[in-house]
Amino acid sequence: MNAIVAVDANWGIGRGNELLFTLRGDLKRFREITTGGTILLGRKTLETFPGGRPLPKRRNVVLTKSTHLELEGATVVHTIDELLDSVKDEDPNSVFVVGGGTVYTALLPYCKRVYMTRVDATAGEPDTYFPNLDKLPGWEVEKEEPPIEENGITYRFVDYINKNI
Predict the structure, then answer these.
(1) d(Cα 75, Cα 59) in Å, to the nearest integer?
(2) Residue 71, H or E segment
(3) What confidence tens digit (pLDDT) does each residue in 26-59 have?
(4) Which of 20, 39, 105, 117 is the Cys-Cys partner for 6 at CB 3.0 to 4.6 Å?
(5) Rounded CA gap, 92 and 78, in Å?
(6) With a cut of 70, which residues of the chain have pLDDT below it?
(7) Cα dihedral value 77, 80, 85, 89, nearest 10
(8) Which residues have CB under 8 Å from 163's CB, separation 6+?
């Protein structure tokens, strides 16, 4: 399994259930990497998707505490164990954790790779953060691409690999 995320300079990922940045290049990369695969996400992250609906051309597995939630086009699970069981027969390279913060933290130990967009700026006061991989044992930068500038914001794609797996 892998994760895909965009972080600001302080590892912030969101505020008020919204992304900190909307970058065309980041969204394009997200689409290219996850299309045809399975995405794992929390219910609040699902609510941020267009129309609050599962993303097309991907299997969507939504983790929620609500036992009454039913979603057309998504598999609904209620525990991390159920979530892991729902993807146990899939190619781990095609499974992607896409948020939010609690889901990232719970599933990061199972992730072999993190596809990260590192924004060279901060976005006010985030209320949700991604774990700082530079400080976690076993995580190393595998690949870092040159900076990209879009609408006055500089960012780069950085892929981390988990040497613990």
Answers:
(1) 8
(2) none
(3) 999 999 999 999 999 999 999 989 999 999 999 9
(4) 117
(5) 21
(6) none
(7) 100
(8) 138, 139, 140
